[in-house]
Write the structure tokens for this entry.
Amino acid sequence: MHRVATIAAIVDQHAEDAAFLWLRRRREIDGPVLDATGIGRIDQRLEANLEGLMAAGKAGWEAAQARFADYAEPGELFVLGVLALRWGDTDLTEVAINAAARLGEPGLSSLSAAIARTPRENLRPLVVKWLDTSDARLRCLGLSALWHHRVDPGPRLHALASHSDANVRRRAIRLAGGLGRRDLLPTVLGGLDGKTAKERLAAAFAACLLGEARSAHPVIDKIVLTETDQAEAAIEIRMLTTPPKAAKAWLQTRLGQPLLRVPATASIGLFGDPSVMPWLIEKMREPELVFAAGLAMRDLFDVDFNDTDLFTIDPSDLGKAFESLTDSPLPVADRVAAWWDEGPGRRNHTLFHSMRRLRLDALRVAIATPEAPLANWRMTRKFPAWM
């Protein structure tokens, strides 16, 4: 890192914009609104700001540090992590790791994202050191690097999947599933009895990827009933690994349970059956279910709804009962009903595959072929930000 002539206001703006753009990317990366091109546009802008900070040298690092001092948030930590890792500076990397400790799990997640944007050659010496340390946080970072870059650590994954720390075990088990490591299946199945819901869900996810959905289903069902913050992810895995007729019957019972109405409604589009649209339109008239119904609708059609007027970002457009909602965008039931009555097939829509669709397709392929690794659906197209 070196000191070069810079304009302080511009460098500060790079630090602010990079943090903001990463937060937006994190919100949309697995979502139903943007496709790979849309994410690619965000990436172009994000990369431009990160490169601006790197070109500024010491001034760029100081700007990022000052920003984190004022706003100790995940976005600001992500920027610190990217700069330190891309420069390959061990002292700065230590600063970023210590800063992450202040934020707990969100801090670890931010550094994991920074690792994902760092070239393998920069990470190789660090990952070897992190996996050999007794510090569980560093082992988690090492496993994050292996996950993002789809690298198989070989025999050492056995020990990591049986580690004494639950966070290390969870990440190692997820990696085993993602890499198709069926030799680790006994350890993965042992994780179904893990101490935390996150660990049990990670083991269930890995078991499904390794062809053992039947063993995972009882654990998934219990998580759906008892862990409301994990219910949506658990329902999704259940739907993807259950034959259609049985899955519909399973989901129908969840739609009748008050605490599960929202995640169950959001998942109904996974069946790919447009005949459910009249029912979904009625749910769009209920404040509790309007957002979930919109998510389900996006799963049903390969349509870029951003180019239509069927959704709104202003809840007041839907009426007084909806004004307090914070989720966005929301479907406008009357407009959706008119669109549906007209017949979506009669419109000339450009084929659109959202990032969520790419993720679901990757999961379906991996579940169908347990010996194959899970594809990296987050690969994005490079596209000029201004187009």
